[in-house]
Amino acid sequence: MATLTPEVTWAQRSSDSDETRNYLYVSINVADVPTSSADLKLTATNVSFTGTNLKGTKYHVSLDLYAEIDPENSKVNHSSRGVELVLRKKTLGIEFWPRLLKESKKVHFVKTDFDKWVDEDEQDEAQDDDYAANFGGFGEDGGLGGIDFSKLGGGLPGGEGLEGEEDDEDLPELEEEESGDKKIEELS
Asked: Any idea of the CA torsion for 108, 113, 118, 121, to the nearest 10 degrees?
């Protein structure tokens, strides 16, 4: 059986003064690969993963990184969906890495994670602890990061549209022609 290369998605944050805000989000998207059959290695310049899923499909990827990371201060979360990494950049700097990989050649399996991406000039306005501290907003207690669901979906301001009210009074009646063909009334 052939070895497949998994999809890798990534995003980043940078800081020239706070090393805890200077990291990469890297996700290796391999579903149903148990931790027992996975081998993940982090070095200062490389991330490599090899694993076999429950159906027997083998995956392997080796990423030579653009610059150095700090493996000791990086985080790993292995789930049934894949492997999520928060890799601490070794060098402080406000500038983003121009790419994830050392080689400038585009590879088909590395993609930008736009759910986590923040533009370089907007990163101070973004929540900095969204993924790095809580892996995707899940709090330490496994909750959803303090979201108050009771305040969601409360209708429109002023109480309009609550309790399934239907307001059909303002809709015009449809007209039918004698021949049985339906005519769509133009609303202006």
From this structure: -10
